[in-house]
UniProtKB/TrEMBL annotation:
<feature type="transmembrane region" description="Helical">
    <location>
        <begin position="88"/>
        <end position="109"/>
    </location>
</feature>
<dbReference type="InterPro" id="IPR035952">
    <property type="entry name" value="Rhomboid-like_sf"/>
</dbReference>
<keyword id="KW-0812">Transmembrane</keyword>
<dbReference type="Pfam" id="PF01694">
    <property type="entry name" value="Rhomboid"/>
</dbReference>
<keyword id="KW-0378">Hydrolase</keyword>
<feature type="domain" description="Peptidase S54 rhomboid">
    <location>
        <begin position="49"/>
        <end position="197"/>
    </location>
</feature>
<comment type="similarity">
    <text>Belongs to the peptidase S54 family.</text>
</comment>
<keyword id="KW-0472">Membrane</keyword>
<dbReference type="GO" id="GO:0016020">
    <property type="term" value="C:membrane"/>
</dbReference>
<feature type="transmembrane region" description="Helical">
    <location>
        <begin position="155"/>
        <end position="174"/>
    </location>
</feature>
<feature type="transmembrane region" description="Helical">
    <location>
        <begin position="12"/>
        <end position="29"/>
    </location>
</feature>
<dbReference type="InterPro" id="IPR022764">
    <property type="entry name" value="Peptidase_S54_rhomboid_dom"/>
</dbReference>
<feature type="transmembrane region" description="Helical">
    <location>
        <begin position="50"/>
        <end position="76"/>
    </location>
</feature>
<keyword id="KW-1133">Transmembrane helix</keyword>
<feature type="transmembrane region" description="Helical">
    <location>
        <begin position="121"/>
        <end position="140"/>
    </location>
</feature>
<feature type="transmembrane region" description="Helical">
    <location>
        <begin position="181"/>
        <end position="199"/>
    </location>
</feature>
<dbReference type="InterPro" id="IPR050925">
    <property type="entry name" value="Rhomboid_protease_S54"/>
</dbReference>
Length: 266
């Protein structure tokens, strides 16, 4: 279920840092208040660094436990794919870029949305989890499911991504406390997939053409070579990311929590 540590050491190191800082912040309210994100201030050019530091702090122990478990499922898997495609050094630099881009993208959109709300605060890594899930579905589609037609296997990741986006969009429209920030995280993951691997956009367009895909499936097996490339060395079995469960699990702690200094969102 979890990617081996020796294959993805950077991901586990980042997760360990998040856990360590979060535990420290839970015991030190001053550190927590310093590192959490305040969109109102960010929009006015203050507390900019909290866009990134807010990923490292959580509102309580359960919040930290859920997000850290989801990160253990998702972050090492993304490191594994990037290292496999771009090499040890470049792949891990891309992983750091992924985290930085996702944090900045989510932070700036959140700052724009809540620019007039002084009492709105945000903390946690849930938006990063959503970015990782959507990145996985777009960048490296799930392997074909036994007994399922090849055509259906080709479009399944796309449909899952669309369903997740639709669900997050509905939650945002309903003004769910965490709906918008998770939607921004999902969009960040899609943009990063297109940016790091532009061919994924072409594959999505091709697989979205149902009639063509259905016709091709009658003549030859379908599926993108990119997924097969990762499985050629036999190590893909060591690293199986259950992406389908991540969206539901992350919603467990996604609620607004009242704090003496303001409202939280993750």
């Amino acid at each position: 279920m979890f990617a081996p540590v020796h294959h993805t050491p950077l991901a586990y190191l980042i997760i360990a840092a998040i856990v360590a800082v979060s535990i420290s912040a839970l015991r030190n309210p001053r550190l927590f208040d310093t590192w959490r994100m305040h969109p109102y201030s960010i929009y006015r050019g203050r507390r900019i660094r909290s866009i990134l530091t807010s990923v490292f702090v959580h509102i309580n122990e359960m919040h930290l436990l859920i997000n850290s478990m989801l990160l253990c499922l998702a972050l090492p898997e993304v490191e594994y794919m990037l290292v496999d495609d771009f090499g040890v050094i470049n792949g891990r630099l891309l992983l750091l870029f992924f985290i930085l881009f996702a944090a900045l993208f989510v932070g700036m959109l959140t700052a724009i949305q809540y620019r007039k709300q002084r009492k709105h605060w945000s903390a946690g890594a849930s938006a990063l989890v959503m970015a990782l899930v959507l990145f996985f579905l777009i960048y490296f589609p799930v392997e074909p499911i036994a007994g399922m037609p090849a055509f259906a296997s080709d479009v399944l990741p796309l449909w899952i991504a669309l369903v997740l986006l639709a669900a997050l969009g509905i939650l945002a429209l309903l003004k769910d406390p965490a709906g918008a920030i998770h939607l921004y995280g999902a969009l960040a993951g899609i943009l990063l997939a297109f940016l790091i691997r532009p061919a994924s956009m072409t594959e999505i367009i091709r697989n979205a053409d149902f009639s063509v895909a259905s016709e091709e499936s009658n003549n030859k097996p379908t599926g993108d070579d990119h997924a097969a490339d990762h499985a050629d060395d036999g190590t893909a079995e060591e690293s199986a990311f259950p992406a389908f469960t991540a969206f539901y699990s992350v919603r467990v702690m996604d609620r607004q929590t009242v704090h003496p200094l303001g409202d939280f969102q993750d």
